[in-house]
Amino acid sequence: MQRPELLLVDDDVALLTAIAENLEEAGFHVARAASAEIALLLIKEGVPFEIMVTDVVLPGALDGFALAHLARVFLPRLAIIYTTGFVEVARLRSPGAVYGDVLAKPYRIDALIMAVRATCAAPRKVLRGSAEPLRSVLGALPRPGDADVTGHR
Fold this sequence. Notes:
CATH superfamily: Response regulator
Number of domains: 1
Number of helices: 6
Number of strands: 5
Strand content: 15-25%
CATH topology: Rossmann fold
Radius of gyration: 14 Å
Structural class: alpha/beta
Low-confidence stretches: 127-153
Oligomer: single chain
Helix content: 40-55%
Shape: globular
CATH architecture: 3-Layer(aba) Sandwich
Strand order of the largest sheet: 2-1-3-4-5
C-alpha cells in the first residue's frame, strides 16, 4: 500500500518538526510548510497531496481557511484538517471556509493521527458548498477554560 501524501502547514517550526516526525513514524509522507505561501508553492508544483493539515492562524496574507480554498483550486479532492489554538478567531473566520475537521490546540498526537487516518479512509469526492459542517464542528470545540483532551485546563 502506498503511503498517503500529506501537507503539514504551521508557522511554529518546532511544532511543525515534531508533528511531522510523528506523522512520518505513523506511515505518512509529510511535506512541511511554515507558511501558506510555501504550501501553495508545493501544491502548484504538482505534488499529489491527499490531505492537508493546516493551522488556521498563519502569518502573511493567507490564513488556513484561505489556503484551503486556494489549495482546492489545484487539488479539488484534497481533504483538509484545521488546527487552531485560537478557537474564537477560527469561529470568526470560518464562514464560507472549505469543509474540514478541526483540532483545537493543544491536541494529542494520537488524536491527530486518528483524524488523518479517518480522513484518508473516507470516500474522496469534490466538496463544495456550505460551510455549515465546519461551523458545527467549531461550535463543538472547547472554549477557553474548558479541559483539553488530557484533562488539563
